[in-house]
Automatic annotation (TrEMBL):
<protein>
    <recommendedName>
        <fullName>Endoribonuclease YbeY</fullName>
        <ecNumber>3.1.-.-</ecNumber>
    </recommendedName>
</protein>
<dbReference type="Pfam" id="PF02130">
    <property type="entry name" value="YbeY"/>
</dbReference>
<dbReference type="GO" id="GO:0005737">
    <property type="term" value="C:cytoplasm"/>
</dbReference>
<keyword id="KW-0540">Nuclease</keyword>
<feature type="binding site">
    <location>
        <position position="116"/>
    </location>
    <ligand>
        <name>Zn(2+)</name>
    </ligand>
</feature>
<dbReference type="GO" id="GO:0008270">
    <property type="term" value="F:zinc ion binding"/>
</dbReference>
<dbReference type="InterPro" id="IPR020549">
    <property type="entry name" value="YbeY_CS"/>
</dbReference>
<keyword id="KW-0479">Metal-binding</keyword>
<dbReference type="InterPro" id="IPR023091">
    <property type="entry name" value="MetalPrtase_cat_dom_sf_prd"/>
</dbReference>
<keyword id="KW-0862">Zinc</keyword>
<dbReference type="InterPro" id="IPR002036">
    <property type="entry name" value="YbeY"/>
</dbReference>
<keyword id="KW-0255">Endonuclease</keyword>
<keyword id="KW-0963">Cytoplasm</keyword>
<comment type="function">
    <text>Single strand-specific metallo-endoribonuclease involved in late-stage 70S ribosome quality control and in maturation of the 3' terminus of the 16S rRNA.</text>
</comment>
<keyword id="KW-0378">Hydrolase</keyword>
<keyword id="KW-0690">Ribosome biogenesis</keyword>
<dbReference type="GO" id="GO:0004521">
    <property type="term" value="F:RNA endonuclease activity"/>
</dbReference>
Length: 156
């Protein structure tokens, strides 16, 4: 699995943790090991430009997802075909503000947003209440599973 993390922001980020989370999410969602994913961290100005250009909305946002090959999750019997999953673009400055409001670290918020962005790349959405319930439950399960895996990795 090729997961590229490109930090173009002014924030110091634990890029390895983002990469481990992405790997965990893609494995859990049965994405082919030859799939490609890019995680890009940008400052507010760059995120605002993307937000206006692609969503038609002013101001920076926390995360944007740009799917490429429209890969979908696999299941217990089938993995996705290989391909380019797409790009997840994160804005640490926006994540920092959200993290303060939520009472957790900026890194925790970035992990949450990364999982969120990956699910969008895999076709999940939260426009309708039932979609939102499914996506956010899956997102929560991925973060919980990753957190448990990280604790196990640290004690090994």
């Amino acid at each position: 699995m090729s997961i590229e993390v490109n930090n173009e922001s002014s924030f110091a980020i634990d890029e390895a943790a983002l990469q481990r989370l992405a790997t965990y999410c893609l494995d859990a969602m049965r994405v082919h090991p030859d799939a490609d994913l890019a995680l890009v961290l940008v400052d507010e100005g760059a995120m605002e430009q993307l937000h206006v250009q692609w969503m038609g909305e002013p101001g920076p946002t926390d995360v944007l997802s740009f799917p490429m090959d429209e890969l979908r999750p696999g299941n217990d019997d089938v993995v996705t075909p290989p391909g380019v999953l797409g790009d997840v673009v994160l804005c640490p400055q926006v994540a920092e503000v959200q993290a303060e409001g939520a009472g957790h670290s900026t890194m925790d918020e970035l992990l949450y947003l990364t999982a969120h962005g990956i699910l969008h790349l895999l076709g999940f959405d939260h426009a309708e209440p039932d979609e939102e319930k499914e996506m956010f439950a899956l997102q929560r399960d991925l973060i919980i599973g990753f957190t448990m895996a990280e604790k196990q990795r640290e004690t090994s």
